[in-house]
Design a protein that fits this description.
With 80 residues, this protein is mainly alpha-helical. The protein has one domain. Helices cover 54% and strands 0% of the residues. The protein has 3 helices and no strands.
Length: 80
């Protein structure tokens, strides 16, 4: 079946970019996303942990601060 839909330019550009990066057509990407939505979710269980700290921005900032502090002690010359 063929149909026409209006997609905002910025959304189309982002989706097209993802499709290109994955080496698939926009049509294939669109169908994959639509099928996933109709199925009711993501079949990648590891994605369940993403965003779990979104409700705790202070904790996110603290983790970011600790990582930055730890990385600041790395000597770039040792990696050459």
């Amino acid at each position: 079946m063929k149909t026409t839909i209006d997609i905002p330019d910025n959304l189309y550009a982002a989706a097209k970019g993802i499709a290109i990066a994955r080496g698939i057509s926009f049509r294939t990407f669109f169908l994959e996303v639509l099928e996933d939505a109709v199925r009711g979710g993501d079949d990648r269980p590891w994605m369940d942990s993403f965003g779990t700290m979104a409700a705790e921005p202070e904790a996110v900032y603290e983790v970011d601060r600790l990582v930055a502090e730890d990385l600041s002690s790395v000597n770039p010359e040792e990696w050459k």
